[in-house]
Amino acid sequence: MQRLLKLGKWADLPMRPGFGSFMHPTEEKLTLIKQLGVDEIILNMYRNNLIDTNFDSLPLPGDHQWEYKDLLMLRNTVENAGIRLLALENMPFSFYDKIMMGQAGREEQLKHVQETISNMGRAGIPVLGYGWTPTGVWRSSTTYRIRGGAQAMSVDLDDFKTAPLSHGRIYSEEEMWDYYQYFLEGVLPVAEEAGVTLALHPNDPPVPSLAGVPQLFRSFEAYKKAMEMVKSENHGLQYCLGNFSEMGADIDEVTEYFGKQDKLVYVHFQTVSNSLSNGSSRFNEVFVDMPGYYDPVKVLRKLKEVGYKGMIMPGHVPKVIGDGSWEERGRAFTIGYIKGIMATLGQED
Length: 349
Description:
Layout: E1 16-17, H1 27-35, E2 40-44, H2 68-79, E3 84-89, H3 97-101, H4 106-123, E4 127-131, E5 141-145, E6 151-156, H5 173-194, E7 197-201, E8 209-210, E9 213-214, H6 220-229, E10 235-240, H7 241-247, H8 251-259, E11 264-269, E12 271-272, E13 282-286, H9 296-305, E14 311-314, H10 328-347
Parallel strand pairs: 1-14, 2-3, 3-4, 4-7, 7-10, 10-11, 11-14
Antiparallel strand pairs: 5-6, 6-13, 8-9, 12-13
Helix pairs in contact: 2-4, 4-5, 9-10
């Protein structure tokens, strides 16, 4: 089966803006998204305190897998508002935590993940974004003050040095790579059959280890290894520019390398103050128009040069005065900035 991402409504789309980092496709959010001139979204199914999620309920029920009928109704809810549902991002950890840690019961979990992927294909949802982060996403603060008192996420690695072991012992790189290979060998053939593309998110923050667990996807080289480990056209990147910046990666080089292989599935557009690779233990997220690790105009121009034709969405954004839990005003500012750059690049043709 061909990749759903290349068929039907997805065929021949240009590089385009999108929204994500929320879980429930409420009428209010979908209306705002259309009013801002955006026609495509990603829904994030990972419960944490860093994005707009409702801890009391999930739009998709299930403790072990997602069912076809629920996926179909979710997709139609979005499409009835005139918006495309590109991806579901981040399965609940309860779907695959034993797989990530090589624990008893991983065989049963793998069957459920395979069925989830098959059901997504049947329901016409083309992308499953996933993270390989058994310890979750870590931040020192979500209220770090930047321009005008806006609140941003920040990390100080010194804060994490005394963290207890999250899984009872210290794990090795080798065993974590073995567990990851087991996952890829089990899910990629199913994804290919279903037409679903899997997209891997970097570890956040991209450091060697947290709470005794190696953070595998913390470098450009690690991503090369991940994409070569089990080769498949149905495997690529959640290209999170914030995390690749924190790694100290050359964004042009990464974009060139993976863009020309058609491995950039969608882009998280967010900017950070600096890289961790220069000996610094701290970074914070910044507004898209503030000095940061990369130049947004150059990044978008490079994506266009390599022929990227996917979605570009605001990742984490600073919270401005009057914002709700989804940082609606901050996201509107970011998407307007991105759309302005894209419009200007279009005039360069």
